[in-house]
């Protein structure tokens, strides 16, 4: 996204001043009176360009943003290289500001109440995820439902995120975590290394075990994880509109096809296992059990698509959340010491068995640490919504139908009146029930809000807490800081620009 000057339209740049432009161009209106095809084409192009600027200025009205939009592509080039700094410049323009990419008119909200209003305005706007989501996830994926049918479908899925289900998943998560910790420790004699790829693989392996059980083996999980990177790379706010071979969206669609082969196989095997009276060992099994009990059957394709949507929504956000949790704890040894002390106490010093959900509930300091880590570096900075009908977002501005409207999570989570010293990592701010952080839950928009609020948020919080808590008991880790450690790279979600260089060693326990 571009940096923009905060200037409002002036007398010189009033909506009508573009009418002067044609007179200064190297051909005149008389050209169309002669049968000169090139002059006619030039005139048509010019008229379209003038129309484009008129539309831009009419839609933008008084919102801060570019005075003129770049013809045809708008801020496309900037959107290819998103940066937190440029987003911050955009948010600083005002509570609402405007930009455009490929003639998509975009209104960005930075104020908490406007951001919440968008999340809660199902009558006017619906999530777009990102522009490439539909071709990647397929049009008939449940995640694109809205209104009543969406609520109904979510209600059905919600029963697999209850405490009973979370307890089932916790044991699976623990097994995968220990396998991956052991793998990371094999490199303990080596220099600190970027954890981007290992953490993404760890996360994919966990998700696939939780959602698909043992129907997907570790090698298949590795293949899906590698292919999934092509999907991540296509998750830009706006993509090149044609999905031609070689484009990012085309590559992502090919990657999805590979993932779907394994997800379909898992759904098929889960149905067979549960029909034969097997015990549920993962999300798909729990779903099949419910299906057979209620007689409401879902196809294997539908089950695979739901898991695909879960992977799509979680892989980057969870990887970001985990990486920053490890980085923050390494950089704040006093916080890590408190996390460890609490873990030792609550687990009775026994790190060889999985933590239970009840024990995790009791880990007040660990949960505050996870919450603070996500606040400081919210994985999802913004969530694009599509305006379905004119949206009166403020008393004096209505976002036109067909526009994109973007609630911004980051400014709400860095509001200094709610989170004093917003750039500091202070888990303690969550320990005082009367403190501003706990008193303003409406600012904590890490998982969105409203009808489309993240369905996996409790699972996500539980997972990061379990991983960090268990890691703190079993391992030490050192963070090799570089000048890029605090800089943010945006690859769908946010990551440390240097990839977070960590060295894991076994923790000596008495
Ligand atoms: C730290 C990790 C995560 C973060 C920061 C995160 C964040 C978000 C955000 C911001 C939204 C948009 C909400 C809105 O429009 O109001 C969302 C939606 C969603 N998330 Fe997550 N998420 C995380 C993990 C997960 C996990 C583990 C799952 C797996 C189940 C998941 C599944 C979904 C789904 C399916 C949606 C769309 C829900 C709907 O449209 O009804 N997310 N998430």
Automatic annotation (TrEMBL):
Heme binds at residue 454. Its EC number is 1.14.19.41. Its cofactor is heme. Signal peptide: none annotated. CDD domains: CYP61_CYP710 (cd11082). The chain crosses the membrane at residues 27-51, 91-111. This is sterol 22-desaturase. It comes from Dacryopinax primogenitus (strain DJM 731).
